Amino acid sequence: MKRYLPWIALIAAASIPLWLHDPYILNAFITTGIFIIAAMSLNLLLGYTGQLNLGQVAFFGIGAYTSALVSLGFDVELIGGIRVVHEPWPVWTGLLIGIVVSAFCGYIVGKLSFRVRGAYFVIVTISFAEVVRLVALNWVELTQGPLALTSIPPVTLGLPGLGYYDFFSKQSYFYLVLGVLAISYIIISRLVNSRTGRAMVALKENESLAVSVGIDVTSYLVLAAVVSAGIAGAAGGLYAHYLKIIDPDVFLFLYTVTMVIMVVTGGKGTLAGPVVGGLIFGFIPVFSRSFVGPELQWIIYGVFMIVIVFVLPEGIVPAIEKWFASKDKSRMPESTQAQVQDAS
Amino acid sequence: MSVASVAKAQPALSIEHVAVHFGGLIAISDMTFTVNEGEVVSLIGPNGAGKTTAFNIVTGFLRPTKGTVHYRGAPLTDLKPHEVASRGLVRTFQRTSVFQSVNVFENVMIGLHRRGRSRLWDTLLALPREKASERELRTRASEILAMVGIEHRARDLAGSLAYGDQRLLGVAMALAADPSMLLLDEPVSGMNATETARFMELLARLRGLGMTILLVEHDMPMVMGVSDRIVVLNYGRIIAEGPPAAIQGNPEVIRAYLGEGVKKRARGS
Amino acid sequence: MTDKKKFLTVFAAAAMLSASFATQGFAQTIKIGVNEPLTGPFAASGTYVVNGAKIAADEINAKGGVLGKKIELVIEDNKSNPTEAAAVAEKLITNDKVPVIMGAWGSSLTLAVMPKLLEYKVPMIVETSSSGKITTSGNPFIFRISPPSSVEAHAFKDILPKLHIKKADFLVINNDWGRGAAEDFGKVLKANGVQVGYVETMDQAAQDMSAQLSKMKSSDADTIMVTTAVEQLTLVLKQAAALGIKKQIVTTGGSQNPDQLIDQAGAAANGTYHLTTFAPWFPDNTPDPKATNYFLGEWKKRGFNFAGATESFRGYDGIRTIVAGIEKAGKAEPAAIAAAMWDVNFTGLNGKIKFEKQGPAGKESGQSIPNVYLIKIENGKIELPKL
Amino acid sequence: MTEFLQHIVNMLILGSTYALLGIGLTLIFGIMRVVNFAHGELYAFGAYFVYFVSILLGLNFFLSILVAIVAGCLLGALIEVVLLRPMRGADIDTTMLIMIGAMIVMQNGEQYIWGGVAKSVNTPFPQAPLVIGSVSVSWLSVFVFFASLALIAASYLLINRTKLGKAMRATFQDRDTASLMGVNIQMIYMATFALGSSLAAAAGALLGPVYVISPQMGNIASLKAFAIVILGGLGSIGGATIGGFMLAFAEEIGAGYISSGYRDAMGFLIIIAVLLFKPTGLFARAERIG
Fold first, then answer.
1. D290 vs chain B: nearest CA distance in angstroms?
2. Which CATH number fits domain D2-124+142-277: 3.10.450, 2.60.40, 1.10.3470, 1.10.3210?
3. pTM to 2 decimals?
4. Angle, in degrees to the nearest 10, between helices A335-342 and A195-205
5. Model confidence at C35, in pLDDT bands (50, 70, 90)?
6. What is the value of ipTM here, to two decimals?
7. Given 3.40.190.10, 3.40.50.2300, 3.10.560.10, 3.40.50.1820, which CATH number is that of C150-276?
8. Looking at chain C, which residue has its C-alpha nearest residue A24?
């Protein structure tokens, strides 16, 4: 039964635009969906390898900027008078290149920053995101700096001569986001349910023990960082083409915090965690907006976060699983293993 | 028993003039010994004598300040731990020997990492090779669990096992990594007499398979029972080396080590 | 089973929520959306603008409203965040069914809202943002009453000879506003034979500008042009005084809030010049003294800090502009209001509000050209300098 | 040369306050393994408290600073007992999340209470700067510089010369052993968090009057404090002091001679450079194996 749940959820989600005609709520689903994808990417690192990357938003932003710039074109003079001119390309190539560039940055950052662990790793990743933000802010020629990249075209699929399909309407964009979310989910679930995933869990649990059985820890960390950055980049690309404007504020620490909250409250190291946490924290502002003043909305957000961590330190999904397990009286292992077993 | 191994007498692991300094502290001053193919050698000595440090040197967790380590003729000194493991040298740990919050079966599956054949693309695209490889690993994992005798606990969290079973699982994981030589760090600490006896049987079976074994252990009856040779460390240097009988009678060993009373480690500590 | 239940719960909640919004749609009043930053870095300014808007709404309602109906402001916080600004626009348009919006303070916030305006064809009065892109990107639903820096710089041309500047350094906030000001004022200065020296930026959140100022202290420029909001400006003036900088300081951008400067920077503010679009200190010199006095009186009566008036007047004028548009349109429908905006012509607190066409032909945005004043702070008092 | 001297003087003043900010964070980080995201909010708390006490209640300026430091200490102790003590033993990202939650609540609480408009505090110092040759500096900054140095010295003495400090150092070295030796770990944690918080509040109380006081002032303070801790190393007062001056130096020189846009990037670039060239040397903690 359990293995069909994601499909049921997917079908349920796919039906949303059919009965939900409120564009504002649909808009909330789309932006929440984008942040769920980003949170899933963070979960791959945090939940499965145990590395907390608080600079995840850098990859999100790099994906957003790359995709936007590829589809808008740019004209930049590099050091030494080399001029790089890029004519606009179709948007879908922008999205793909955004993913690749993000993944590549993930590789570089992974190579460098996995030399340190724990709190140092956390601060190093924050520093990275800050540097990227400041580059986006100050390299005006490329990024327009604080003037923002505007008029970013909507996502269009197709090839010259074969016709195009554009994702301009909210409904179609919802399905695009849902599709990317499903693909990311599949990638992550296959990865963590494989030998690779076991290696990641091993190094999260006990790094020395993992290397002693011949697991090359660094290469798996870097692999996780690459996949994670690529998925975050995809989310960033979707964000840029949905909002149609990006400025260096996409690198704000707040966005990373949003992702972390979604992952940790939902349940890190579970596939469903970021989805559940994402829906909750994506919709808290939507609900609280109609009841309380602006500052109080934030205060509720913060208090709710603390309460969830206090009451359910492992997250909502593991707690629900445990509750069902105890109700069934049958022994059910912890979430991580539960998923690993799904593959069997 | 010792006659058989002497007949082989092919050095597998050789440690030459290894010294380890931590800042001003000398953990090992000068250590030289070899372990032959198929031999069971025990490294003993009082606490702080440098046994675990020696293990860390051999398995790449520490770099020696001086000296070299070779396995089957190839130098190990500059290898990373996982590279050492892929040369066939696999160790167990004294304290944290298993992945606590993962179940027993998955622990062994993690141990089987090196034997997996699937590549990243196989995994992501769910290609047949992925499935085949996984099936193979699962079969192998069951076999290994049966071999160490904890197959009935396969679905339990490793952290929920009794201490003795955790040690067995640690060995199972090490075996899963396909070693030609095992380095066991106090494998029977925390085991009761029955468990220890069972473990000694397991060791005997492993040596029957031609496995080379280096053992650090405090349990003297066991050391005396299973070892072909014993190396005694004290204050970072070797003070005696030889077959169990010779060590038992060595006055320096008695003074340095046995003299303070044969300490069995408190069980379950 | 678990996942299914979770999803069902969420969907049920979402459905309930959308139903609750749907019941609000009866139009006894004319709704006007207000999309402003009430939390986050721009909270102070956004709150001022909203307070100004409320004064306008109350004034209009006290006089009987527009088209026989009262107006109702639907105020939403965009959290100083572009994503939220877009989401808020979506909510205002689709849930609250507002036919017109005022917003969204910062340029990036406004730019994020603009695609939504195109999507739903709802006009927006831009009360504060200064980025040139807002009116030049071909969005016919944009009507701006604040001056972009090019307008300000253009007006500065006439004042320039009297300030006797030979060479100027720029110190600007590192965002669209500051960078835009440095560029536009730089052009005007150069065109009028004034040299431009350093162009230094300061991060939006930066509190210590000593490094930039030390560099300027030893430059040969005689004037420092500063563009930033009042908090940072206070720091710039204090730190410049601490460094013993005796150069002429001219600030631009209209968010200087001179009273707050005098209050918080003290003597450091003396001798500084400020380009501003509203002069509440001299109500009789403003284009519509009666309106100015009424507005200032209300502002005071409600217990707001006088210093906020230089920000809040934009909210006041924004709502008045919208109501003028609704009146001209004769009905509270987006398309009619957008069309009628071109006919709006009245005197706001900072000059004539009448939209000129800007941007690509056929889809021009509206830009109103306000007055620009130069004021000077002298001995803790604000003066209109005799130049 | 004139410009350079001025930059150096600026650097010394800025560095002393950065150091103060960094020390509090590094102690909490080193001893408790808590990444305190609310550090900047305690800094803002100190600033608002001075505003409240000196402007609204009319207390003497210097006394206000002292009161703010004490208030920061109490608030820190409260946070520790209410938010951190129940989560003892949780992993580092769990406590970090709690502190992020606390940060969100505190920052918006400040805005709720005080509004978004920046506040400023008048001081008894003369407005005319102190001028020595070509270098000029405000009297308030001179006071802040010496007050910071005094507080740094006081913390140093507290850690190195008192019984409490000894227990803190023991806890930093090895919590379990310290506990076995009779150190009351709960008490030490509370004291550490209270001390760290009071130092942050002190930095805010000193800098609030120099700058302006706004709800967002904590964000940048947190970010800088993190950079300082990375530069200076774990749990080391000396390290944080040096880190503070290093960061100030990099920023001054970066803004003065490279590009002011990248001024705030300098600290982060140094961190990345340190990582590249000395990945383990400056600050790695040896993992115990086995």
1. 5
2. 1.10.3470
3. 0.82
4. 160
5. very high
6. 0.78
7. 3.40.50.2300
8. C91
